[in-house]
Amino acid sequence: MDINPKLIEEIVSQVLLKINNSPKEEKADAVSHSQDMILTEVGPAKKGTNPKEVVIGIGAAFSKKMHYTIKRIPHSVVLREVIAGIEEEGCVARVVRITRTTDVGFITNYAAKLAGSGIGIGIQSKGTTVISHKDLDPLTNLELFPLAPLITPDRYRAIGRNAAKYAKGESPIPVEVLLDQTVLPIYQPVAVLLHNRETSDVVIGGPHLEIEYKFAK
Amino acid sequence: MLLVAGVDIGNSTTEAAIAKIDGPKLEFIASGIDKTTGIKGTKKNIRGIINALEKALDNSPYQLKDLSIVLLNEATPVIGDIAMETITETIITESTIIGHNPSTPGGVGFGTGKTIAFKDFINYLGNESLIPLVNDSYDFADVAAVVNRKVDQGIKVAGLIVQNNDGVLINNRLKNTIPIVDEVKFIDKVPVGMPAAVEVAESGKTIETLSNPFGIATVFNLDPEETKMVVPISRALIGNRSAVVIKTPEGDVQARRIPAGKLQIFGQRHKAEVDIEDGADEIMQSTEKVRPIIDVRGEPGTNVGGMLERVRAVMSNLTDQPIETMAIQDILGVDTFVPKAVTGGVAGESALESAVGLAAMVKTNQLPIKQIAEELEKIINVKVEIEGVEANMAILGALTTPGSAKPLAIVDIGGGSTDAALITARDEIYYTHLAGAGDMVTMLIKAELGLDSLILAEDIKCHPLAKVESLFHIRMEDGSVKFFKEPLEPRVFSRVVVLNGDKMEPIETEHSMERIRTVRREAKRKVFVTNTIRALKRIAPHDNIRLLDFVTIVGGSALDFEVPEMITEALAGYKIVAGRANIRGIMGPRNAVATGLVISYYNNLKNRSN
What is the pLDDT confidence band of residue B293, given thresholds at 50, 70 and 90? Predict the structure, then answer.
C-alpha cells in the first residue's frame, strides 16, 4: 500500500473538523463511569512509601473521554488486568491520572516517582504502555510496548506481573514484544487521532490526581 | 646481532616473543598477541602469525624485514570435542504434578478431596470434599464468587487447581483460605473424579506432607507395597512450595534410565566395557584401569556410539585425514544435571535429569606445520624454522618464572585439551594430553542453566557475576556493594549480570546469582581440577603426585579469575608449590611457548659455538 503523508494529513484534518463541530461534551465529572469500572479522582496524588506499591499512571482521557484502546479493548479490562498482574505477585497497585502530558515516557516517569517501590507503569488511552523506574530518564525504560494494537489482555496482565517483580527486586524475563510492520500503515492515522484526542484534555502544569478504582467484579 | 622471533600458534591466540641475541647476551625486547586465524595447524594461521609479529614489533624500533629468523613450534596434533547425553528420564502416568513449582501459588494449607471439573462444581450439591479444576475460561473474580457461594451452601472445598496464574488473586477474594496450585498448563489432562491432595506452604517454607512417602500413604490409605511406589513422587516434590498428588488406579511416576549404550575402551593390554548409564565415575575408573588408551568405541546404534562417531567425523574433517585413522586417546566423563520437560507432565513441568558429558581427544598425524613455515617464509621474506615440540618449549618458557626450578611440571588448560609436561632434574621431559578443558566447562554451564546461547555460557565462565540492585548500585557475588555516580543502563536493572571489565551483560534467566555461581564453580571443579590432577598423575614419577615439587599453570585459562586458586587449593593437599606462571617475570602465564622457542634457539647457538 502506498502511504501518502498528504493523504493522511487530509484525513486527519477532516476528521478533526467533524470532531470539533460535534456538540461539545459536558465538562467531565471527577467520577468516570464505564460499565465495569468506576474511577474516582480524590485529589492530588502523594508520593507513596509502601515498598510493595507499584503506581499505574493513566492518560488524561483514560476512561473519561475515551474508553477503549486502539484495538477496542475496554479500558476497564486493561486496568483490571494490569492490577491483577500486580496483585498476583503480592504487590499493591495505586492508580494516578497524569494530566499534564500525554507523552507515555513522562506519564510513566511521573508514576514511578510517586511509587513507593520506584516502579511505575504508564498507560496511554490508546493502549501504549511502558514500565519504568524512578531513577531512569523519562525517555528510557525497563520495558516498552510501543505497538498498542498488538497488546492483548493477557499481555497487560504480564506487564503488571513484571512490574511487580521489578518492585520485589526479582529479574523477570521481559514480556514478549510483538513487532509487526504492517501495523504502522494500518493504525497510524487512527493512532494520531486518538493521541490528539487525549492531548486535547491535557492541562498545562496540571496536577497528578489520585484515583480510587472499583471494578464490577 | 641477531633479531629472533618465537611464534606460538594456539587454538585461540597466536603469541610472539622477540629477542636480541648479541654474542652471549640474550635480551627479550617485545611480545605480541593476536587472534589465531583459522583452525590451528592450517595455512590460514599465517595472517594471525603476521599480526602477532607486527603487534610485537610495534613496541620496538624494528620492522618485520629486520628479523633474522622466525621460529615456529611443532604444535601438538591433538584436538578435542565434546558431547552430552541424558541418561535418566522422568515419566508421569497421571498421578501427580511434579517438578511444577509455580512462583505464586495461592492460599496456604493442606486439603484432600475428589477432583471435579469447575462447570460441574457450580451445580454440585453432594457432601463430598472437592478439589475443583479451573480452566482458563473462568475469570478469577467469578471463580472466587462461586467458591464463596458454594462454601456458604455447605459444600466442602479442599483446594483448587487452576490453569491461569490466578492463585493469589482467587485467594484474596475468598472468605476462607484454601490451598490453590496455579499455572497448571494442561489442566484438561488432570483426571476427574479421583482422590487428590493439594498442599501449599507459607512463603519461604516448603511442603511437608506430600514430600514424605508416609505422608502420602496416610492421605490415601496406602499399603506398604503401594507406599514403596510413591517414593519417586515424594522425592520429586522435595523443596517445592506447592504440590498436587492425585491417586489414580494405575498412576505412577517412573524415574527411568535411558539405555544410552556402552563404551568400549581399548588399552594397550586390557580392554574395558562400561555402560554410560553407570555414570562418569565408572567411566573414569575404567579409563584409569586400562590406560594407556589406544582407542575408544561406542556401541553401534546407540546414543554414545553416534556421539563418538560424530567426534571422529569432525576430527577427520578438520585434519583432512581418513576417519579410520582417528583414534580416541582419552575421554573425560562428567556427571551433570540437565533440565528436561517431564514426559506426560500436565503443568509443562520440568525435572533435572542426570546426564553425562563426554570429552574425547583425538591424536592425529602431524599437522602440516612445514607447509605453513614454507608459505610464511615466502610472504615475509624472513627465514622460518621449526624449532621444537610444544611441550618442551613451554617448559623452557615456564622455567623463566621467578622462583621456579627443575623438576618443574606445567599444566596448560586450553579450550579443547588439558596438557601437562614435566622436566626432571636430569632434563628428561615427559608430557601428556588429556580430553576436556574450557569448551567442556562452557557446555556444562550452558546445559545446567538451560541457556540458549553458547556465547552467554562462555561469558558466565570467564567473568564474575553481580546483581544490579538499583540503578546506582550493584552487589558483587562476594556480597560487597559497588556504587555508581551515573545511573546504569535500564536493560541491566534488577538482573544478574556478567561483569566483563566495565561492561555489564545481563543474564536473562530466572536463576539466582548464587545458583549461577555454584553451577559455574562446580563445572570448573569437575573439569579443570579433575583434569589437572589426572594429568599430573600421568607425568609424575611412579604416578605419584607427591613426588612433584613445582607446578606452574600456563596458557589462557590461567588468566581465569578463579581457576588458578582452585588448582592451588586442590594441590596444596599434596604439598606441591602450585600457582600461575610468570613468564620472564613480566608476562604472567602467557607467552611460555614463544619465549621457550627463542631460548631453545639461543641454547643451540651457544652449544654449537662451544
Answer: confident
Q: Is B142 an 8 Å CB contact of chain A?
A: yes
Sorted by sequence, the CB contacts under 8 Å of residue A56 that are 6+ apart come out as A79, A82, A83, A93, A94, A95, A96, A111, A120, A121, A122, A123
Q: What is the DSSP letter of B525?
A: I
- Is A135 an interface residue toward B (CB < 8 Å)? yes
Compare all CA atoms of chain A with the CA of B136 and give the residue at the minimum distance: A154
C-alpha cell at B459: 561469558
Distance between CA A60 and CA B170 in Å, rounded? 31
Task: Place B36 in a pLDDT band, splitting at 50, 70 and 90.
Answer: confident
Q: What is the pTM of this model?
A: 0.80
Burial class (CB in 10 A: 0-12, 13-18, 19+), B95: buried
A142 and B CB contact within 8 Å = yes
* Poorest-pLDDT segment among B132-146, B148-162, B283-297, B587-601: B283-297
Which range (A85-89, B225-229, B480-484) has the least confidence? Answer: B225-229
DSSP letter for B550, please: E
A170 chain-B contacts, CB cut-off 8 A: 494, 510
Query: Which residues of chain A from 178 to 197 reach within 8 Å of chain B, CB to CB?
Result: none
For residue B490, give the nearest of A84, A142, A173 by CB distance. A142
Asked if B472 reaches chain A (Cβ–Cβ under 8 Å), the answer is yes
Strand order across the beta sheet in which B293-298 lies: B271-275, B262-267, B293-298
What are the domain boundaries of chain A?
A: 34-215
Question: In chain A, whose CA is at the least distance from the CA of B509?
Answer: A173
Q: Which helix (H) or strand (E) holds A160?
A: helix A153-167
Q: In chain A, which residues have their Cβ closer than 8 Å to the Cβ of B142?
A: 217
Grid cell locating A111: 508514576
Quick one: cell of B489?
543502563
Closest CA to A207 of A42, A5, A40: A42
Query: Which residue(s) pair with B244 in the sheet?
Result: B97, B198
Nearest to A134 by CA among A123, A118, A122: A118
Over the stretch B50-93, which tens digit does the pLDDT of each residue have? 999 999 999 888 888 888 999 998 766 666 677 777 777 777 65
Range among B51-65, B129-143, B267-281, B388-402 with highest mean pLDDT value: B129-143
Is residue B520 pLDDT above 90, yes or no? Answer: yes
Three-state secondary structure of B410-447 = EEEECCCEEEEEEECCCCCEEEEEEECCHHHHHHHHHH
ipTM: 0.81
* Cα distance between residue B572 and residue B567, in whole Å: 8
- Domain with residues A34-215, CATH architecture: 3-Layer(aba) Sandwich (3.40)
Q: Which residue's C-alpha cell is 545481563?
A: B506
